[in-house]
Amino acid sequence: MFYIIGIGLGDVKDITVRGLEIVRKAERVYLESYTSILAEDKLQLEQFYERPLIEADRELVEQDADQILDKSNEVDIVLLVVGDPFGATTHADILLRAHNLKIETRVIHNASIMNAIGCCGLQLYHFGETVSIPFWTDVWKPSSFINKINQNKSNGLHTLCLLDIQVKEPTWESITKKKKEYQPSRYMEVKQAVSQLLDIIKNNEFEGKNYVTQESLCVGAARIGWPDQKIVAGTLTEMANVDLGSPLHSLVIVGTLHPLEEQFLKQFYI
Description:
By secondary structure, the protein is of the alpha/beta class.
């Protein structure tokens, strides 16, 4: 059996009881290490789970998934994922590979930013389509995600923006020289995402009517599920100057507020 088990957002104890029982009995346990991060490190997880973990980086999960799935039709193999297993398309892909290999699979769910963002007081059923905001480069500055934000806002819906994570990204030299070298890991901050959004608004880089302005209300969320989580609400202009500290960060562009949402959100205003 091949299991993908969500281990939540906060500390080592966020794994479910069922998930922990499976981990302790499995033949091999992999820890996916590039789509998110936990408050604890690998050693702390190993101590609590009472077994060694094999780090699964981007290359292993995306390019050598067969190595993870090897013999999982004979013994139990586990892939641990921060948050919920379906928080990233990568994990759906490896399940499809297992299915094609006639390997039985099972998913153990957990909390993810997709539902935990409700801690800011915005009701989950008032959210529209989620968007991802990537790091810009000197030659690549995508802006099409603002069209989805506009579509959500036109319907009165909030937009959860997932901010870019770059772990084990190959350097340009490694691509051209076929030599494995990686850029330092980096995690987008709310103020970086807001700065890019403000540039898009300033340059009118959107389709149709724009509902997002410098004065649009937004929510910055950092380290949700961790003991030191931080939530701040303000306009885009205000949020561009807010330091929310260490990763991980998320951003919400607020739609039409229900009175209860408005009352709850007041505690986080700048």
